[in-house]
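Good morning C.,

I know you're traveling, so I'll keep this short. The sequence:
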Amino acid sequence: MPQNVITDEELVVIVREKDKERYDEIIRRYQLKLSHYLHKFIKNPDELEDVLQEIFIKTYRNLNAFDSDKKFSSWIYRIAHNEALNHLKKYRRQIISLDEHEMDVVDKKMDIKDKIDASISKIKIENALSQLNEKYREPLILYFFEQKSYEEISDILRIPRGTVGILIMRGKEKLKEFLN
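The C-alpha cells, ready to paste straight into the viewer:
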C-alpha cells in the first residue's frame, strides 16, 4: 500500500477524533462494495439504496464502538449483513439475485446455443442458491462472490473459523445436489 494512503482503521480514528467530515471517504470506499454485496439479497434497487443508507447511518452512529485494532471491512460487512437480514425478515422475502457480471460467462463471440446454455446455467445457479438454507448461502456468497477470507467470514457471521469451512464445504455439496 502506498505510504500516502491511509487504512480504513486509521481513517476511522481520524473521523472519530479529528474530522467527522472525512466520513464521506468511508462511504466512497464502501458504497459500491456493499451495494454489490446487498444485491445478492435485495433485488429492488430502491430497497437496496434504503438498506445501504441505513448501514452507513448505523456505522456512523456506532463508530466509537469499533475496535480500531480489528479489521474495519469485517465490521462494516457485519452491519451490512445484519441489515440485509433485517430487511428480508421485515418483508418476509428470501430473494437472491446474482450479479450478471459475476455469473455471465457468455463471451460476445459465442454462438447462440452457447448463450442459451449459459443463460440456463445462470438461472439454475440462482435457483439452487435461493433454495439453500441461509446458513450455507451466506458463507458461499461471502467467500465466492465477495472474496472474503474464512477469518473475515467468521467475523462477519460471528461464527468460529472452522465452522465457516464446514458450512462452505456443505453448502457446495448441497448446491451440487440442487444443480444435479
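Safe travels,
E.
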